[in-house]
Amino acid sequence: MTDTAIAAPAARSESGLFFEDFAAGQVYRHPFGRTLTETDNSWFCLLTLGMNQVHFNEDYAKRTSFGKAIMPSPLTLAVVTGLSTMDFGQNTMANLGWKEVTLPRPVFAGDTLYARTTILAARPSAKRPSVGIVDVSTQGYNQHGKVVLTFLRTMMVYRRGHSPAAHLPDIVPDA
């Protein structure tokens, strides 16, 4: 498939993307990367009570086929999803679900993750006229261009003029 890349800055505006901005076949190369650290790994394991020793016990992990500690897969999913928020996050009302999550390669401390998303479908919501439903396929890849995560995701996205931001008062601070 040929990339139908979205040109900046028009698509990546202050107000973000709305339901009307999405069309099947569009490809978004999300602009930021995120390097994962040992601290990210420790904090995530502590926060989620992730007790698999392959994440935090280097002596244990070196005896596995990975040869060293790996990042928890839910952390990889969270970071790759987060990388898309510059494009999708401002006007997403809700994530409706992730499915077909695959993790073809491990992620290690020091790896930098990047993401790219293809729009699969965009349709009006049958129950909520102020939003539409957008189906996407996302790939997370490392600094070597190797895919480490793929998933399908469904998002409920505000239509233009219907996001909460459209109804905020225009407050000007005192000079």
Automatic annotation (TrEMBL):
It comes from the Bacteria. CDD domains: FkbR2 (cd03451). Gene3D superfamilies: Hotdog Thioesterase. It holds the Pfam family MC_hydratase. This is MaoC family dehydratase. It comes from Bosea minatitlanensis.
